[in-house]
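Quick one: structure for this chain?
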Amino acid sequence: MALRPQHPFLSFYLSSHSLHHSPPFSLYSSSPPLSSPSSKSFTSKPSNHSPPPPVCHNSQTSPTSAYVHLPFCRKRCHYCDFPIIALGSSPSLSRIKDYISLIQTEISSTTPTKSVDSHPPLQTIFFGGGTPSLVPPSLVAQILDSLSKKFGFSLSPKVEISIEMDPGTFDASSLSSFLSLGVNRVSLGVQAFQNELLKVCGRAHCLDHVRESLEIIKSSGLENWSLDLISSLPNQSLEMWEESLRAAIESGAPHLSVYDLQVEEGTKFGAWYKPGQSPLPSEEESAMFYRKAWELLSKAGYEHYEISSYCKRGMECKHNMGYWLNKPYYGFGLGAASYVGGIRFTRSRRMKDYARYVELLESERTREKEIEGLERGGSESENKGMVGVTVIGGLERGEERESESGRLVGRESVWEGVRESESEVVMDAIMLSLRMGRGLEVAGFRGRFGEEILERVCRALRPYVESGHVLPLDEDRRTLSAVDFVRFCESRMQNKSVEYIRLSDPDGFLLSNELISVAFASLSSS
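Got it. Here's what it folds into:
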């Protein structure tokens, strides 16, 4: 298991002071004022990529991505606060089978969305955890079969099917079995290339397992795989971090995720350590780790396409790009999150409650006549509030209604989701755009939210353009001067010279907390 999010709000590159789960966003923590970036930070090389799509997608479109949570681990890592089931050294196959059966029931009892695009097939599937590689391939096959029957997808290179794997939990035979199912992307949770750091983290693997797993992956012929590292670990030095980065580069991984340690309440690290205090690094030291990753990985030919993600050209994680582009997605399993129909919904982290949710969901789906009536729909006003029924499994019983929060109230409810307000959709677009190397696409943002909101955001960011922490780009993604940006603002955005706005790398990304918070504050100004 890596410090991998289930939705975009949980995957920012965070310092040890950040709150990983604080809604509606999480940011890199405040740090002492930085000196102006070097002239190198002002340069954004023209890209051969197609223009980035705006992060303003219609939340009513049908999801084409599905996240499946497989919570089984050999043990809980000292930093982990994800919903997991620790199996020990002798996993119980019956427990795993029972859980897979719940997942299949949840999938089969979920009604696909009804929209103009008529249930497009899934384009990405992500098995996260936990340690999904502990689940026998034959059981993963059952989940894929359920997803195919319900939502449809074809086994082709265009459909990304990812699975998280930990060193020491698979061999060449099991990896081959996963690949034969259609899995075509692996995320390997290495975290560190030093045995002492792996031990400090409570990881179940050692460096020998890492080397063996890397050899298995490279010998399999799999081209699309990722390696995860964690910085700011207890007693981790800059030299250790550089050693891990160089080892990751030498592995040939086409994708690397570098996460800063989160010290969460309720974890062993949360009980043992205080962020910013020894043996954890200071904020200044954490910033040095971030800069070192940018320096080494950029030199090695990796593109910094997202605040914590690097890849070789064209090897972005399609599934995570869906999160960062704010597209809707299905989620299945213990603690899994969904974003469908403009509603964000997270299942219970307690197995008993999750099992009850699935039981009620299945029971409600057997009421075929009622469901058929709901699925036929009616006028827009008649269907208001039915998103939970037709999208993510809420219950509707005639007299029941949907509250403003998205919770179906009545005799017995099985879910409580949050329907995003328009202001939250704006904040999503700003945050998710600025966390990516692509940045915010000005025309798309203006078209979705209007001239006034764009003007507020641009004026708020103007001082940081002048300091070099925010970069305005033209249509060819060439960096414009601060003077050009001032003219753009003074023209009330009628001057079309600025096509994109992004944070500079690495200095702007390091100040993402302040910069995005400033943009958010501008939305509430009079």
